[in-house]
Specification:
Two copies of one chain form a homodimer. Chain A has helices at about 10-25, 45-60, 75-85, 145-155, 175-180; strands at about 25-30, 35, 45, 65-70, 90-95, 105-110, 115-125, 135-140, 160-170, 185-195, 200. Chain A is of the alpha/beta class and about 200 residues long. Strand 3 (about 45) of chain A pairs antiparallel with strand 5 (about 90-95) of chain B, so a sheet runs across the interface.
């Protein structure tokens, strides 16, 4: 990154910086809700997100991905920076069909824990093709339902999921076990292992 | 950008590459709707978006911005890359209030031409403060209503809008004239001047 974007966060330090930000600025709102909207999803720290993307790109450098897939809204930032460092296009599934999309689309339903309802995930067949090798990136891996929905879209398109990456995993919501059936590498930069009684506990 | 992200698009070439992509891949869907969802908003070309962000950052290097503000969803990619190259935080206004947001927020209504309805734009007071100098970035400048809504949010927060940047401007929808009242520099990387009768005509 040869820009004027403030102090550069190196790949090696990115994970450490991320963990420090979660512990310092994250808030436990109860019911497993982790508020990190000061640097991940509402206000974004672009330098940190770029470093997270670089680290995710490094971890998935060997999986032969041809495309990065995420879900709007908060997946866009980490997916974009990961795709940038892998030199791949990035597709974000829409939650409502824009008028620029063809009538026939790939659509699946995914229950959203934080929204308390089911959301649609929609991808145009123009941008997800047979034979594509798809790396799924999201801000959170929690119940795994959104990521599993993205995997269903990829499979409907005849493409293959080759990896799953998240900035933050909540290990106690079972997503990793749910996604294990896909048989692909799963990487999370920071793992929150316990949010009981107001705690925010990270794995080493 | 010292990454493996494919051939680097330099700042100087970014605008030319953007224009070529619009002419080659853009589709005129009628009613002023320009489909560029193969590289801007649904599938994103991260290298091109990074180059666009670098060019927008260059153009606004002198305005003294302290924050980049955009609206979800399709504004996130260009705002993030612009903010990255300016070394500033990026805030995206939400269109529905997530559970992580406080009860009291800044909210305004903006008519959406492409959606055919009014949308809410919501920013948490945690991330838009009195005295902030706000650079507004979006993928499109068309009617200007979304950007004007973002400007109202900034003003409600007691901050000052110092510039407006867009990747693509549709000059025939009057947005630039509407926003002129703000008295700030307005930059668009590519200007579509005519979409009548199936045409896509760009300014030089």
């Amino acid at each position: 990154m040869a820009s004027g974007a403030g102090p550069e966060v190196t790949t090696e330090a990115a994970v450490q910086v991320l963990k420090e930000r979660i512990l310092r600025e994250g808030r436990n709102l109860g019911h497993g809700i982790l508020k990190v909207d000061g640097f991940i999803n509402h206000q974004v720290d672009p330098g940190l997100m770029d470093a997270c993307g670089r680290e995710l790109a490094r971890r998935f450098a060997g999986v032969g991905a041809t495309k990065v897939l995420t879900a709007e809204i908060s997946g866009i930032a980490p997916a974009l920076t990961t795709a940038l460092h892998l030199g791949l296009p990035c597709v974000y599934a829409r939650k409502s069909r824009p008028i620029t999309m063809p009538d026939q689309v790939f659509l699946t339903l995914a229950p959203s824990h934080t929204k308390g309802r089911t959301v649609e995930l929609i991808v145009s067949p123009e941008y997800l093709s047979h034979g594509e090798r798809v790396l799924i990136i999201d801000d959170f891996l929690a119940t795994g339902q959104t990521i599993l929905g993205l995997a269903r879209l990829a499979e409907a398109a005849g493409s293959t999921v080759v990896g799953i990456g998240a900035v933050i995993e909540k290990t106690f919501e079972g997503g990793r076990a749910l996604l294990a059936r896909l048989g692909v590498p799963i990487e999370a930069l920071a793992q929150v292992t316990d949010m009981r009684a107001g705690r925010i506990v990270l794995a080493d």
